Amino acid sequence: MKNYRTNPQWPSLAHYETKGSFPEEFRKPAGCSRPRMRWWLPSAMLSMDGIEKDIRSMAEAGFGGAEVVPMPRFDTSGAFTIEWGTPGWKAFARHILRTAAKYDFTIDFSMTPFWPLSLPGITDASDPLQGAQMEADSAYRDGITKDRPYSGPVPIPPQAVEDAASAGTLPRLAAVTCARYADKETKTLAYGSARAFRLGEEVIPKDGDPLSWSISFCPEEEGEYVLFGWWEHPSGNRTCQNLQLDHYSREATRRLTGYWERELIPCFGGDFSNMVSLFIDSLEFQTHLDWTYGFLDAFREQNKYDLAPYLPALYDPDSPGCFVSFPVPEFRFDEHTEQILRDYQEFLTRLYIDNHLVPLTAFCEKHHINLRYQTSYGKVLELAQTAMYVSIPETETLYGGDILDFYRLQAGSMHLSGKQIYSIEASAEMNGRGNGGVNSGNYQQTWGNQLWHIQRAFSCCVNQAVFHGYSYEGYYEGEGNENGFLPGTHWPGYTTMGYSEFSNNWSSCQPNWLHVNHYTDFLARNQFILRQGIGRTDLAVLRQSYEETIDFNQAVKLYDDGGLLEQLGYTYDFISPSALALSGTIVSESPQEPHHAVLAADGPAYKALLLENQTFLPYETALRLLDFAQKGLPILFVGELPRQSAFHREKDITPIIEELLLLPGVKQVPSVQEVPGQLEALRILPLARYHKRSRILNVSRHTPDTDFYYFYNYGDADTYPQAQEMPSQETLVTLTGEGIPCLLDAWSGCIRPLAAYQTGEGTVTALLNLEPGGSCILALTRDPARLGLDLPSVHTEDLSIRAEYDTAGGIYEQLPSGSPIALENWKLILEKWTDSPVPSESVKTVFTFDPLPDLVPWKDLPGQESTSGIGIYETSFFLDKAWEDNTGYLLKLGKICDSFSITVNHREIPVNQSSSSIDIGPCLHRGENTLTITVASTLLNALLDYTYRNAVTYPKWQAEIRVPDPYGLWGNVCLLPYEKKTLVSPQR
Q1: pLDDT in tens, 331-352
Q2: pTM of the model
Q3: Which of 130, 474, 650, 827 sits most deeply, having the most CB atoms within 10 A of its CB?
């Protein structure tokens, strides 16, 4: 293993502590538990009033804070410049902090303007102290033999000259190497022939011309040789006209932190205290071969050999070196190519950690803020390792393709390093990209779609959602403004991501903002629970990888068993070899199951370690596994065994693997399909064990007095359209833990004990029933008072019934009673939103349909083909029997799009927005009852109509290809009666 730290200094979190009692926090979560919003600002083209309007809107909508991202105006022509760091920007930034405090709202700032990281003021990109981004390029000449020696200039790639010139400098010769072809057709080089020439001795510079070096080379052996010239240079990459920063250079990091301490923090004054985090987005910079000043010397010191001769196996001149297309080098060696490549990638990872992440995190801690960072996916770095070195690691839905395993990549790092928050950028889509369906884009994404993305992430241990996003509404009083708005802004307001491209504009410009608090409260309650205590996970999958396949390259499942482990209730994290070196990653007795060994008992308490077709391992990791197995930790090798050392010039791991296989707890199975059977044979059961295979994901959080379990019906659906077809899931589940089982309703904030359950030795079994896309929280508590509950005196062990407690503490069963009662005679009051001369407002016209002949989508109503807006459905009905007669009713809804609320007899009731069946029995009485359902849509249909009517004025990049969506309430709506049958009377 290469220079892993034994135990990094884990950063603490600022501004993330709750203060109220548990019931109070669950009912009304504090701002630190609430979802956050990415807030796009058009550079410094803002107004003080506009800033306050946006912040007030987000705060009143239930968001806890905003991530401030100043961006160039992509909706206008010209250079993508930005006024970040100017006096005007500083004034607005301070006003943002001051105004946020006024609304009990907190702020994250992106660390530099937009991304990748860049700074103004780099005047000499060739000066290492200025920290400009670096890369290396190469040119080669082959055909060199003993009979045809070479004498002439060192090959130089035109790309290097061009890139360096764009940064105002010249490339610098870093190395000259050669190697003999072992197979010219496949461009395979002979490892033993590779060598580097001595600069200044064998490679001679030409006076006065840094680009002119000459060499005379005559091979001593037979065969054809290739001569390579390796040139390092500033990449010339820019963000908003500023040169990008070197992510592997400590000098670049010093320049970045120094800029904040010199230029920004002082101007914020006391308002800086309302800042929670600095944010850095994913690594989207493009370089042919990632590099930094002094790279080869530092590599030699670290790895004890010269990398230069083997650079051909690392370099792909046609790859941008990032998520768009990972490098596929043109050359390779006949030996050791993979180990050399991993040496390079591991060395880059350590440079990125030691010179970038560690000092940035220390800087943030110094100023009592967090570093929230999408650390390294998209580059050839080890994501699971880098995530351990920031305050708040962040993932995202888009680049991960919503693949569950992508979220699990950082979950292990979070658990083993004891982090409280794991964040996600949620949930961008782009006209078919992002799993929302074909032609999904801005102003179209529904709340149901958003919940699908976020709940999948929650089920893999994410516990903070940052919405993508909220566009500044466009108020501007500066030069060139048009009636108080940004020039060129039209209805429905300024939007950063285009009117049809990236989703989504979450704001009051859309009708469905009417119900935003239902969703923010729901998400906040879930996030509050998913931060309780410590996370417990059944299994760890050891995986060493420096490239993650993400959505540009068709994201794939990493541990692909068809969902078999998940559907039995097992949970798993991915962990990296570096995590095994942490001081807390030791084997000891399970805190919940005596005489069972677990890994990291004070953390995730993994019950077994899996390696799936992991054909290589660092030598130190192999020794660590042997130690774990000797202390009783079960280890499963799935598929191929590791036979190769991960890194070049490491000791052979084969004897260690052979010794491992002789131990009783170490097993090898041929495929992932055999893993559950082997786990059962080893008596390793999940913390939440389903009694039948179920498409349900779960997360476990443990505190000294309560075990919390989050369940989500994911339906084995990897796209949102597939999720629309998922079935309900019902199974008995046996939960590990002791105590009174309770249901925590994240939609209403209510906490109530379960009336039906069975207890076992250290377990509780209950019935789990989840509708499509539904989730729930169960808790086993040894201290009911902490959850605000009185200890129930009775419960039933009959799990085949739907049992509930009544107000007196007795238990009743819900039994179907009678035929469905169709609800008819509807009246619809439809508020239609259309374009307005004022960009941030909509004209709202009311249409009344009384009676409404049929429940159909709005676009099927006369004259409403392009309607977006808010519809209020009203009906009345007469009941002979109701709650006072021990009769209740379930409201069975048809189809609804998008958000909705329900009022029964003038009383609004909490509504599970994922449910199509809502118990309204306690609100009904004998005689006449009234029901009102309010439905709010997205803005898509109105926007499409506006676009069609103004097609001539739209640039081509805004051309619409989408079609109107169905909105409203349609299908059959009825009441399903049930009888309340008393099973157990309360004991006195």
Answers
A1: 999 999 999 999 999 999 999 9
A2: 0.96
A3: 474
